[in-house]
């Protein structure tokens, strides 16, 4: 069984990402060794796949190469080409000895020279091995689905949860579908692309229009039975800005009529809900007022500066506003996390725990372009805790995963405690704050740089009603009219008026 993977979500508006931005680069046996470890570096798909295969009986994994990164800008194309050479050489060396292929994808990758790298990889696998060797691919829920991605695989398995809590299950499902293919069953895939770009905050799977379509898909699959192998309703990643963008329903099954009918039905169901795919955010000044007035603690999501969507994790809009409002409050009243600023983290480590320092956020670096939207902020602070940032995820998408935040510091600025890290990561797990001794449950307001994955980690502190999605500038803003789109198919909702759409 050949195993490989390419997983990165690329924001077209962020600076390009090279090899050093990939936090997980695993070659050969290291792919399977990592998957079998109690705290893998890779996200859950490969561990889920390998565990399911191990449980099903003897098998021979032939891992080639797995490349995974935090969301970022477009991948530097020469690095992508080098990865393709590694995958191609690995497949050629195994040709004639491979029964099936499992490929971990994200689906919202782009490179500086290729707007459909997943399609390129899948086509390459087909070209190398032929159509008779089954290929199963799994994807993030935010995949932008190209025609090539659907044409070049035998089973298309997308996440069903946002926050993403089913990565291991989808890896295991991929193994189960691959075994059906190895037993001689054959599939037919059908997809329907809609002229809808769901703003990120509208793509939750617990409630809302998108959740309703996912739930309908699961219910219909259960009713129809084994002829439908998988139902994937892919929300897409808006800031990918690719020509094949749009919410996409992809059905895998072995009964062509049933597959086509279900694809039609779910596409119609999504279209019927089109008016609800609109971002409704709270203006920053209103958010701060809610923090002051609320009888219960609240969490404030900086959805526009989400490192989990390729943003810098450095913008100061929310920190500045909460400092203005809560500087004179009791220590620990507000927690802000996590700001990506390796220079400031190094300053805090040099000063030492307990020391006071002049914290210079976003200081200019000679020879480097400043990040978009990242203004400097200088303020006196006390270092209250330090760490090397080596943590194991406790809840949500990073649960059980080894994460390296790099040199990390908690700085107290009056009533606001801010956590500064060195390796850009979204604040999806409470352990990122807790490992420094911060008491999340005692805070009146917690401000997080995360669009939505924090919901899977901080849900033990905050119910849905305690979440405030704040409107501020940033590279991952869900207000899509603010971007200078280059490749999106137009017209598309909710950016344009789309009067009419039909399946035929
Ligand atoms: Zn995602």
From TrEMBL:
Annotated GO biological process: proteolysis
Residue stretches making up the Microcystin LR degradation protein MlrC C-terminal domain: 301-487
InterPro entries from the UniProt entry: MlrC, MlrC_C, MlrC_N
Protein known as: Microcystinase C
Entry similarity comment: Belongs to the peptidase M81 family.
UniProt KW keywords: Hydrolase, Metal-binding, Metalloprotease, Protease
Functional summary from the UniProt entry: Involved in peptidolytic degradation of cyclic heptapeptide hepatotoxin microcystin (MC).
Cofactor(s) it depends on: Zn(2+)
Domain named Microcystin LR degradation protein MlrC N-terminal: residues: 2-291
């Amino acid at each position: 069984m050949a195993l490989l993977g390419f997983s990165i979500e690329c924001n077209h508006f962020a600076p390009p990402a090279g090899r050093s931005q990939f936090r997980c680069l695993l070659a050969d046996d290291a792919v399977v060794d990592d998957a079998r470890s109690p705290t893998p570096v890779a996200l859950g798909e490969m561990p889920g796949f390998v565990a399911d295969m191990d449980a099903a009986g003897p098998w021979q994994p032939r891992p080639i190469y797995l490349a995974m990164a935090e969301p970022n800008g477009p991948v530097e194309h020469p690095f992508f080409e080098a990865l393709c050479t590694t995958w191609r050489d690995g497949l050629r060396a195994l040709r004639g000895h491979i029964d099936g292929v499992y490929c971990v994808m994200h689906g919202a990758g782009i490179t500086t020279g290729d707007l459909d790298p997943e399609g390129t990889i899948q086509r390459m696998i087909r070209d190398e091995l032929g159509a008779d060797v089954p290929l199963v691919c799994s994807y993030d829920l935010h995949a932008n689905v190209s025609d090539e991605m659907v044409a070049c695989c035998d089973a298309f398995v997308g996440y069903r949860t946002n926050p993403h809590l089913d990565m291991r299950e989808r890896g295991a499902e991929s193994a189960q579908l691959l075994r059906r293919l190895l037993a001689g069953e054959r599939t037919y895939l059908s997809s329907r692309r809609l002229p809808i770009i769901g703003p990120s905050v509208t793509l939750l799977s617990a409630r809302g229009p998108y959740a309703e379509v996912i739930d309908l898909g699961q219910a219909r699959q259960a009713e129809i039975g084994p002829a439908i192998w998988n139902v994937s309703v892919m929300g897409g990643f808006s800031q990918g800005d690719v020509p094949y963008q749009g919410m996409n329903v992809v059905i895998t099954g072995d009964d062509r009529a049933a597959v086509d009918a279900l694809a039609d039905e779910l596409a119609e169901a999504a279209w019927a809900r089109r008016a609800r795919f609109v971002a409704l955010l709270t203006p920053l000044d209103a958010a701060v007022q809610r923090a002051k007035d609320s009888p219960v603690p609240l969490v404030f999501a900086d959805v526009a500066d989400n490192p989990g969507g390729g943003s810098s994790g450095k913008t100061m809009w929310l920190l500045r506003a909460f400092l203005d409002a809560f500087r004179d409050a009791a220590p620990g009243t507000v927690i802000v996390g996590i700001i990506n600023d390796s220079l400031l983290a190094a300053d805090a480590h040099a000063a030492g725990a307990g020391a006071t320092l002049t914290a210079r956020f976003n200081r200019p670096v000679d020879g480097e372009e400043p990040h978009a939207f990242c203004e400097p902020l200088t303020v006196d602070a006390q270092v209250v805790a330090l760490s090397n940032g080596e943590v194991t995820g406790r809840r949500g998408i990073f649960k059980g995963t080894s994460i390296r935040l790099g040199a990390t510091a908690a700085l107290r600025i009056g009533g606001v405690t801010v956590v500064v890290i060195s390796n850009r990561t979204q604040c999806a797990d409470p352990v990122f704050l807790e490992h420094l001794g911060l008491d999340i449950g005692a805070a009146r307001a917690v401000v997080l740089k995360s669009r939505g994955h924090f919901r899977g980690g901080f849900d033990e502190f905050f119910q849905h009603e305690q979440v405030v999605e704040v409107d501020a500038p940033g590279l991952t803003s869900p207000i899509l009219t603010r971007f200078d789109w280059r490749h999106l198919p137009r017209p598309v909702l909710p950016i344009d008026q789309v009067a009419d759409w039909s399946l035929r």
